[in-house]
Amino acid sequence: MTRSAWLHWTTLAPLTATVVLALSWGSHPGVVAALGIGIFLVGAVLSAVHHAEVVAHRVGEPFGSLLLAVAVTVIEVALIVTLMKSGSDTSALARDTVFAAVMITLNGIAGLSLLIGAVKYRMAVFNPEGAGSALLTVVALAALTLVLPRFTTSAPGPEFSGAQLAFAAVASLVLYGVFVFTQTVRHRDFFLPVDGGRGPVDADDDGHADPPSDRAALASLGLLLVGLVAVVGLAKVESYPIEDAVAAVGLPHSFVGVVIALLVLLPESIAAARAAAQDRVQTSLNLAYGSAMASIGLTIPAIAVASIWLDGPLVLGLEPTQMVLLLVSVIGAVLTVVPGRAKSLHGAVALVLLAAFVFLAINP
Questions:
Q1: Apex 325 CA angle, 321 and 331, nearest 5
Q2: Dihedral of alpha carbons 67, 72, 73, 75, sign
Q3: Which GO terms describe its molecular function (predicted)?
């Protein structure tokens, strides 16, 4: 890497975040210190996903969307587990965070991308076979892990029994694995950016900027690993301040899950919006649905394994209001994806559903 590359914020952010982690590890920071650490945490998140995107550009689409989704999920799992070990009532934290991620991706990231694409190019164009396959997998995962626990009877409350949780975890991994095979091997062309008749996106018409060199990709891979370590550690340091802040402003404890999801999905939102502005709405939907899928298909199995060491129950079943929001969001997403193109109305409807979710999370 050149000297100017080393001085770039995407290089400095994970390195300085690691230094902050070493200085703050084991502490319970106050308000001012927590805000400062939070800045470095956000910087580490943004830089980590940036470097994931650089590596992804080297290997090509749709591997790019897959790598970004996995990187974000690692961050999400780290935040959930560290907060669940904080000792307070966190039995529903995994559910609240995963559900928030699903709502933000289905309605927020996808809705914003469709709105940007439709406003800028009159119609947002994408491949309904690829987007539909991803949406189908998200719906199946959400039903298996978030809806069914509300109706099972082997364990008290909206929880899975041990055997049921193990089945849900294995089924989630199987569905996610089959989808990844479909996306990257069997039907890779369904997930590539669609030419809407407005000309190539870049010089080689592959839907991406020209890929970086091997050296740059390897450097980004190393910085990605450093950034993820920093995120995991700083998440542990920030676990108490996050809960204290939510309680201090009088919000329900479940809003902690929304905060986590908003934090980890911010880089994905920026990347998806940028892709939509470049007439690559398919890439935006890959990011949105891929993140929702990874959030369920990888987080739930990870939490299932972590529950062996975590104390207390693991509540996964959605509340009735949440199930209604999920149902309406799924119906809207299906009606949007089927035609293969969307108007600005579709994006606006999705964003209104996201606003309803956030409002009801604050004022249930």
A1: 145
A2: positive
A3: potassium:proton antiporter activity; sodium:proton antiporter activity
